[in-house]
Automatic annotation (TrEMBL):
Keywords: Signal
Gene3D superfamilies according to UniProt: Periplasmic binding protein-like II
Keyword Transferase: no
Cited Pfam families: NMT1
Family: Belongs to the bacterial solute-binding protein SsuA/TauA family.
InterPro entries tied to this protein: SsuA/THI5
Keyword Signal tagged: yes
A Gene Ontology biological process term: alkanesulfonate transmembrane transport
Entry GO terms, CC: periplasmic space
Localization: Periplasm
Protein name: ABC transporter substrate-binding protein
Domain called SsuA/THI5-like: residue spans: 2-220
Length: 295
């Protein structure tokens, strides 16, 4: 959303930038586009960037946009009403998932592997549940509404739709404050170091524009305009979901991340065999450009 706002509100232009925003859905395709120089920067999570860095690609973060966890474990009302562990301290409520159907974006994706990681917190194994490919966003909430899944592991928009709009589920555990994804990194802007070295001023201006856009988003006075921008760029998202996301946008967006969140991601990728030991960035500074602020 910060990129949409910076474009729509003329913030890029105010910083002397002429920016074309392209929609590329797959992370690996974004990396390929960076390497072919068909794009100058990409907006994505840290896992795809850390993985690319581990293969020797000189990718660097230029600014965070969502510098915190985006993950949720949502359970249906039926699970919440019938499970005896619901009100127990973390991680015991996760035992409610045993024998149930858990929705994820697709098998083998970050949401699937992340879901397995959460189950392990309570001593469960991947085979203790059934995994259901259920897409993302509102679609996974609709799968719960249709009775096709009992729980899902998903990002904030999906959780907002399921819990606040159609009201078919609730957080089984609070993954923002408990578990392996507390110190996490949601989203950021990434570019290749050779391009950054060639045009440092351009990327500094881009970083400043994103910061201004996030400040604009977080101002409640702009909520009506922010809603219109979100809806214009994501027309298939329901009005109620857009309203709920905008109402809590100050919880999402920011430009300062914790250095340890990047290290957490490298550790998680290694632990889950998505990354060979010793191949990922050892610290946040190994994968960030001079424009990034860490707390």
């Amino acid at each position: 959303m910060p990129v949409w706002v910076a474009q729509d509100q003329g913030i890029f232009a105010q910083h002397g930038l002429d920016v074309e925003v392209k929609t590329i859905l797959a992370g690996p395709t974004m990396i390929s586009a960076l390497n072919s120089q068909s794009i100058d920067a990409m907006l994505n999570g840290a896992t795809i960037a850390v993985t690319a860095s581990a293969t020797g690609q000189p990718i660097k973060m230029i600014t965070p946009t969502i510098p915190k966890s985006i993950y949720n474990l949502i359970a249906s009302k039926e699970v919440m009403d019938s499970c005896p562990y619901v009100n127990e301290p973390y991680p015991k409520p996760i035992l409610c998932a045993k024998g149930k159907r858990i929705g994820v974006v697709a098998l083998g994706t970050e949401s699937h592997i992340g879901g397995i990681t959460v189950l392990e917190e309570a001593g469960l194994k991947e085979s203790d549940v059934s995994w259901v490919p259920a897409s993302a966003g509102e679609m996974i909430g609709s799968s719960m509404q249709a009775g096709q899944i009992d729980l899902f592991f998903g990002e904030d928009t999906a959780a907002t739709y399921a819990t606040e709009v159609i009201k078919v589920g609730s957080p089984l555990v609070d993954l923002k404050h408990d578990g392996p994804f507390v110190d996490w990194f949601g989203n950021g802007v990434w570019a290749l170091e050779p391009q950054l070295q060639r045009s440092p001023d351009k990327y500094q201006k881009f970083t400043d524009a994103i910061s201004d856009a996030i400040t604009w988003i977080n101002d409640p006075a702009n909520s009506t305009e922010a809603r219109a921008i979100f809806k214009k760029n994501s027309p298939n998202t329901s009005d109620a979901t857009v309203d709920a996301v905008i109402a809590s946008s100050h919880d999402y967006f920011g430009t300062t991340a914790t250095c340890s969140s990047i290290e957490t991601i490298t550790t998680w990728l290694t632990k889950t065999n998505q990354l060979a030991a010793g191949k990922g960035p050892a610290t946040c500074h190994d994968i960030s450009w001079q424009t990034v602020s860490f707390s």
